[in-house]
Amino acid sequence: GTVRVEGNGAFGTPVLTVGSGFTNLGLIELTSTGGFGAALQVNNGALTNGAGGVIRSSVISGGVGQRQIIAPVTNLGTIDAQEALFFANGGRTLASAGGTIALSAGRVLTVQDGTVELGAATLTGTGTLSLTGTVALQLPQALALSAGGAQLALNGNVSVTGAGSLTVAGGATLELANDTVGVPLTVEGTARVLGNTTISGALSVAAGGTVRVEGNGAFGTPVLTVGSGFTNLGLIELTSTSGFGAALALNSGALTNGAGGVIRSSVISGGVGQRQIVAPVTNLGTIDVDRKS
Fold first, then answer.
1. 18: which strand partners?
2. CB-based contacts of 273: which residues, under 8 Å, 6+ apart?
3. How many angstroms separate the Cα of 164 from the Cα of each of 33, 54, 113, 256, 275?
4. Using an 8 Å Cβ cutoff, are 47 and 19 in contact?
5. What is the pLDDT of residue 156?
6. Is the pLDDT score of 293 beyond 50?
């Protein structure tokens, strides 16, 4: 069966309001013509997207208005973001450790606030899952972000916890801004730290990996705080635009810059604010002081 919520020129942006939780074993589609939006709201209980069930955002013709889901969701099937999709998740949970979130190229699925649960195989496609507001991200399994695959953008105050781990594979990028990562984090690609961020789980920077702490006009001078000592075999870069600074602090233990590892101070553009390391450092590689613009 199919439930299609269809924005249109006659009625505008429709909202389907369901009084109590239900299970979808067919297709729920939020779509439109003429640039309108479409929304689904559940007043009490949760929407369970069962095995084989599909929740899809799409467009029939014309521009694309907002597609929105206002409900706790347990996803055991597929959430298919063919167009941008927004979850108003405050006080709610999007649990998808047992399901798939398919992100089409260039499309963004945004979850604002609440709790999000992702499994090892949850994210597919080449689009982006964006977490905004205050979000508790739970990883019960190991999650790896791959080059050319689905991307995870932590755009709010995100706290990452769980029994799993997070790996940024070679060629992939993870952006951190005002976030706390409480699971083991392995950086083989690039981790951009744009706002104050704490990594309380074990941090590993592999050969070829980059941790870039980047001062900028949006967040100012970011401080990356790491809970315990770690080894850098790649690149740690303190850099900025527009005259801001950048800092790396270690709460305990030492930073070992291994053979082949590089710790660099640089500038992308504009003036140069203070670059600071607050940690015991054992340097077996290179500390590179570079002020090129």
1. 42
2. 215, 221, 240, 243, 244, 245, 246
3. 42, 26, 21, 25, 33
4. no
5. 86
6. no
pTM of the full structure: 0.94
Amino acid at 70: I
Angle at 144 between CA 140 and CA 148, to 5 degrees: 145
Handedness of CA 47, 92, 143, 108 (dihedral sign): positive
Q: What is the enclosing helix (H) or strand (E) of 130?
A: strand 128-138
Determine the Cα–Cα distance for residues 236 and 261; give it in Å rounded to an integer.
Answer: 8
Q: Tokens representing 42?
A: 């559940």
Contact between 192 and 170 under an 8 Å Cβ cutoff? The reply is no
Q: What integer is the mean pLDDT of 229-252?
A: 97
Residue with tokens 């992702």: 118
In 3-state terms the chain splits into helix, strand, coil percentages (rounded to 5) of 0, 55, 45
Cα dist. 124→63, 119, 292 in Å?
25, 11, 39
292 vs 290: CA distance, rounded Å: 6
The span from the CA of 262 to the CA of 53, in Å, is 48
Closest listed residue to residue 255, CA positions, set 194, 215, 211: 211
Nearest to 147 by CA among 97, 207, 199, 209: 209
DSSP three-state, residue 105 = coil
Half-sphere exposure in the Cβ direction for 275 (13 Å, CA): 21
